[in-house]
Amino acid sequence: MEDLCGVRPDPDAVAAFLRRQTPAGSDVATGSAPKKPRRTTRPAPTPDAPKSAGYELYGQRHRARSARDVLIQVLGKFAERDPNFLELLERFAALPKHGRKRRYLARTKEELYPGSPQLADNAYEVRPGWWVDTRASRAGIETRIKMACEVTG
Q1: Does residue 16 come out as left (phi exceeding 0), alpha (psi in the -120 to 50 range) or beta?
Q2: pLDDT tens track for 12-51
Q3: What are the C-alpha distances in Å from 138 to residues 70, 129, 134, 142?
Q4: Which CATH number fits domain 67-152: 1.20.1380.10, 1.20.1050.10, 3.30.1330.30, 2.130.10.10?
Q5: pLDDT value at residue 121
């Protein structure tokens, strides 16, 4: 408290505060706490439950090993389905809303990771001459996929 506010609290005020925070049934003097309820096991997933990594595209469910794999597969499916995919990649790359420091899609690995060439191994070549940044959190990968969906319609 003193470090945060610059004021040393009264010891009696601290004790009263801690008593209010202590769960009912615990013994503050001995430091023993009431027993926590036992953790129960989760029910088995139903066969129709979605897997943790995967996606649904064009009405079909697809499995993937990771969020990174989802990104790669989705872009691959877009490329298979649309003969103008390279044009769409141009539009995607031209979008102003990429990361603060890096592009999500670029013509070279080096453009994806300016100033950090050691990260280039994280790039995936979607189509010859087009690289996507896969070094991202699940949320970041979701952002990239949403942008690709916007561009492809």
Answers
A1: alpha
A2: 877 787 788 866 655 555 555 555 555 555 555 555 544 4
A3: 10, 25, 10, 6
A4: 1.20.1380.10
A5: 84
